[in-house]
Amino acid sequence: MDDERWNQLREQAEQMLREGKDAEEALYDLEVFQTELSIQNEELRNAVKAKSEAWRRYYELYNEAPVAYLTLDADSRIKEGNQAAARLLGKEKATLNGEALSAFCPRDQADRLHLFLRSFDEQTEKKSCELCFQPPTGQIVETLVEATPFREKDGPHLFRMTLVDITEKKQGERAQRLLAGIVNASNEGIISVDVAGKICSWNPGAEKMFGVSESKMLNQPLTSLIPASFPREREALLEAIRKGKEIKDYQIVTQSQSNASVDASITVSPLYDEAGALSGAAVLIRDVTERRRLEREVLSVVEREQRRIGQDLHDGLGQMLAGLSYSAETLESKLKSQNDALAEQSQALREGLVEALTLCRNIAKGYTLFNLAPSGIQGALELVADRVEKESGVRCRCHIEAEAAVRDRSLASHLVRIAQEAIHNAIRHGKATNVDVELERDQERLFLIVKDNGHGMDPNALDQQKGMGLQTMRYRTDMIHGFLDIQSRSSGGIIVVCSIPF
């Protein structure tokens, strides 16, 4: 168009010169046109520069994109690829062109790629499939492939492809399926809860254990599994979930849909989201009802055997030692009346027999506390306190509320043994000089309290204690469905509180 305009102006100027007309008008038109051309040239240069810059930016975006881009010819050979494609296929970008894409696939995947590309027809716009590639490094890469066919003028079909690495995603899905299979196959109850303690998932093991389906338990509070008579245990469990604390092998009584008691061991592990924020907890519930029954049976047998041994010591060996001590006393009197030199030896013999008799009776009392305490738990605790004072010199006092009388022999036995162990720990480890034993109750619970004035203990160290004594106390507390709390006192010493529904 500009050349045509230029020729037109030139012809007009020549015509004006031949006709003798004023040439200034033609010269002005030429100058105007020259200015227009300069402006147009500048605009053209700017447009070319902008286009070049846009192309550069597009190429950088394409080449540095995190997604692999490929262009394939009609024979499935690579015509072009970006850096991400080169990394995924394990090649230098400059060496990609001309390579058959199938060369980077395991054999079965190469056949799948071939069938995928041949599935396109004239009406197909876009398709996707999952394919595995195996670059020279040998590491299998799982990808999501999306292909779009196109033509350049009248040429053959070409393909633009994107390859997204989904290896981690697929591995995660496989791990999730494996974990789900383990959870569903487990006979133990595996539950997930949110930070408020509401149930989010409920496996078949929990359904079998509690007799209720997942659909009915979703969004129900986890504490609904614990009887209302255990408010302290409910709150302790919720507190652990809210604060992201881990609980291992927490012994507690739960209840099934039919309100049957289920002795359970609960393990709580905190769960976190991708941002690291606490999202809830995984709760593992193991039914230990049968184990608890067997343990109670074994303990009952042991205690019966202890009572038998104590009775045998008292009635058998004790009586024999008593008879021998009387005989030794008679012998000692006769020898002294005769001024016999053996009198001193007979005295030593009598004193030894008396000491052995005292030891035998003390051992027998330890085995037969309740047989020797007609007043039940009160008499047994007072007997324990009296023995402590006599054997160790430590002041030990008992205070038992009348309302706290325990009629159940097994329960009373456990409480006395817990008190014995707590007193023993206070004297041996805390070096206490004063121990108080209290038994009291409120409307719902019975409390055994043992306080001392010893050295105390670091609260953080209490959870780390693995001694047999502390384990025995916790074991017996679990057996009576109680809650054991051990704390350092601000005034010095330790306070042990065993609370049970009553």
Topology, please?
Layout: H1 2-18, H2 24-64, E1 68-72, E2 78-81, H3 83-89, H4 107-118, E3 127-133, E4 141-151, E5 157-165, H5 167-185, E6 189-194, E7 199-202, H6 204-210, H7 214-217, H8 231-242, E8 247-255, E9 261-272, E10 278-287, H9 289-337, H10 343-367, H11 377-392, E11 395-400, H12 409-428, E12 434-441, E13 445-452, H13 459-462, H14 468-479, E14 483-488, E15 494-501
Parallel strand pairs: 11-12
Antiparallel strand pairs: 1-2, 1-5, 3-4, 4-5, 6-7, 6-10, 8-9, 9-10, 12-13, 13-15, 14-15
Helix pairs in contact: 1-2, 9-10, 11-12, 12-14
Report on this model:
The chain has 14 helices and 15 strands. It is an alpha+beta fold. The chain has helices spanning 2-18, 24-64, 83-89, 107-118, 167-185, 204-210, 214-217, 231-242, 289-337, 343-367, 377-392, 409-428, 459-462, 468-479, and strands spanning 68-72, 78-81, 127-133, 141-151, 157-165, 189-194, 199-202, 247-255, 261-272, 278-287, 395-400, 434-441, 445-452, 483-488, 494-501. A 5-stranded antiparallel sheet has the order 2-1-5-4-3. A 5-stranded antiparallel sheet has the order 7-6-10-9-8, sandwiched between helices. Strands 11-12-13-15-14 form a 5-stranded mixed sheet. The protein folds into 5 domains: 2-63; 67-170, PAS domain (Beta-Lactamase, 2-Layer Sandwich); 186-287, PAS domain (Beta-Lactamase), CATH 3.30.450; 289-368; 374-502, Histidine kinase-like ATPase, C-terminal domain (Heat Shock Protein 90, 2-Layer Sandwich), CATH 3.30.565. α1 (2-18) packs antiparallel against α2 (24-64).
